Amino acid sequence: MGKFLKNFPIQAGQFSLGNTISAVSSFRLLNINLKDLTTTELNTPEGIDSAELVFGVNFGNISLYSTIHPVRGKYSFDVIEYHVCTQNCSVYSFRTPQDSYPMVYTFPKGYILTFKTNEVFARGSAVVLDKNGDFMWNLTTRYAISDFEYSNDALFFSTGGAESGGTIIAGGDIYAFSLNGSLKWHIDLSSYDGKFYDWAVAGMKARDDLYAIGYTGRVYVIDFNGTLKKITASPVSKRLKTPSLIKGVKAAKNDLMAFAYIDIKRSGLFREAKGICVYDFKGFKCWKTKERLVKILV
Questions:
Q1: Which of 6, 23, 155, 238 has its CA 20 to 30 A from that of 126?
Q2: Which domain of life is it from (predicted)?
C-alpha cells in the first residue's frame, strides 16, 4: 500500500529533481524526499520573490532556487533566474521565450542549469556548476537544449524541440565537452539524415555508445569520438507514413529507454495516433494508447 505524502492545493507548483519533489503552495516551499518519503519545509532567502518562485531544493551543501519573471511589452520574454545559495547566493539569469521553464540536470561532478522552451528556433544556453555550486563555465547551442548525458568525464548536450502544435521541429546537434569546458566534438545529424523531421533529438542515453532518439523514433548510435555508427528505425518510423512527434524521452538504468509519441500529421480532433515505445538496446516494443502520455517515469 502506498504512503500518503501531502495534500497539496490544486494551484500548487511541483518540480521534480532527482530524488526530490519541490512543491510551492501558498508561499510555502516544501521538499519531499522520494527515498524515505520525508517532507521538509525550506525558507526562501531574501531577494527571492515568492510569487515568482518555481522551485527550491536543498542538496545538503548548497540550496538551489529558481524564479520566472515575465516581461511583456513590445518585446515579450521571460527571465528565468537560478539562485545558488551557500552562505551567500549567486544568481544566474537566462532571457528566454515566453512560457519557457527551468531545467536542471545533475551529474557526478556538478549541476547543469538551463531551460526548456516551445520556441523551436531559440538558441540554447546552459551554466555548468561544480558540486559546491561554484561556476565552472557556460555554453550556447544553435538550438534549444533537449537533453544532457555524462560519461567518461565528457558532457553531452543535444538540441531539438517542437512548437506546441507539433508542426515545426528544429534541432539535431549533439555537442561533447570536456570537464574544463573545451569542445571535444560536434555532430549535426541533419548531415546524415536528410528528411527534415528525422534528426531533431528528443533524448539521449550514454551506455557503451551514445544513443540519441530523434523526433521520428529513429535511434542514432554515436561513439564517444563523435562518429555516427548506425541509424535504427523504430516501429513508429516504419509503421507511420508520416513523421511522428516524440513527446518525451525517459532514459533509465542501463538497459532501457522509453518514449511516448503522437503522429503530428494525422493529429486532429478525432484522429490521432499515439502510444509508447520501449527500447532495450536490442529491439523495440511499442503499444498504442487511448490518451496522450504527458510524462514517463521509469
A1: 23
A2: Archaea
Nearest partner of 287 among 265, 268, 259, judged by Cα? 259
Answer left, alpha or beta for residue 28, where phi above 0 means left and psi between -120 and 50 means alpha: beta
Question: SS3 of 240, please?
Answer: coil
Q: What is the pTM of this model?
A: 0.86
* Interval 10-34: pLDDT, tens: 344 678 887 888 988 777 898 988 8
Instruction: Name residues whose C-beta falls within 8 Å of residue 215's C-beta, 6 or more positions apart in sequence.
Output: 160, 162, 169, 197, 198, 199, 200, 201, 202, 243, 244, 245, 246
pLDDT in tens, 63-102: 999 999 999 999 899 999 999 999 899 999 999 999 899 9
Cβ burial of 33 (10 Å; 0-12, 13-18, 19+) is middle
Q: Which helix (H) or strand (E) holds 27?
A: none
User: Burial letters for 245-267: b for 16+ Cβ neighbours within 10 Å, e otherwise?
Assistant: bbbebebeeeeebbbbbbbbeeb
**pLDDT given at position 106:** 93
Single-letter residue type at 112 = I
The whole-angstrom separation of Cα 146 and Cα 117 is: 9
Q: Which contiguous run of DSSP H or E holds residue 106?
A: strand 101-107
Round to whole Å and give the CA distance between 157 and 200.
12
